[in-house]
Amino acid sequence: MQFRNHVITLASAGLAVIGGLMSSGTSIAQRSAPVRIVSPVPLPVRDVDNAARQPFQAELCTQAPLGGTFCGAKPSSVSVPANRRLVIEYASGRCPRSGFSLSNGEDWAASLQTTAGGTQARHLLHPVPGIAIGNPQLQSAMQLNGFDVTQLMRIYADPGSPVALQFEDLGGLGSNAITCEITISGYTVTP
Questions:
Q1: What is the pLDDT of residue 26?
Q2: The pLDDT of residue 95
Q3: Where in the chain are the domains?
């Protein structure tokens, strides 16, 4: 019986302590002053955890066969700054560019070529389903000429290395000059 009384007393004391702690947290929170942002608006934001990140984006254009003038002044490659590593997070674009078309049966592939850790690699850009024509598996009911690319990714490129857009005829059936314009975005960091 005495043991039972001690357990009840301890349980009651424990509940009283817990209740006191809970109410003291509430009272502290009620005494807080509201936060008011006066200036600047909008509030500038930076990645506090990764302060060394610098935004990066580039427009790339290439054509097949190489050497044509459809891309104008847009380059087919961009060099990563010598003291920075590039992380590509997103690519979007259109192949071929508006105003050009693919013949039915043509099979083309767009890719980015990078060097990471001293090793070159080719990263295929996947067409948006239902937009492509040419390859019979990708032919859409709307008979659109070309395909769009919208792709999340994480591709690395070494400092000073080129990032090149490639566009190639996989089936050998291409008979026209075809262009591909892709915008890449991401960030650079100090290696």
A1: 46
A2: 80
A3: 1-31, 52-189
Position 90 scores a pLDDT of 96
Q: Model pTM?
A: 0.65
What is each CA distance from 125 to 66, 71, 185, in whole angstroms?
19, 19, 14
Neighbour-count burial of 180, counting CB atoms closer than 10 A to its CB (0-12 exposed, 13-18 middle, 19+ buried)? buried
How high is the pLDDT of residue 141?
Answer: 42
- Pair type for strands 54-64 and 77-79: unpaired
CATH class of the region 52-189: mainly beta
Record the tokens describing residue 53, joined without a space. 């990140």
Indicate the burial class of 127 (C-beta count within 10 angstroms; 0-12, 13-18, 19 or more): buried
**Residue 112, SS3?**
strand
Q: Label residue 110 exposed, middle or buried (CB < 10 Å: 0-12, 13-18, 19+).
A: buried
Report, as ranges of residue numbers, the positions in the chain whose pLDDT lies below 70.
1-31, 37, 39-49, 65-68, 96-107, 129-146, 171-177
- What pairing do the DSSP bridges indicate for beta strands 162-169 and 108-116? antiparallel
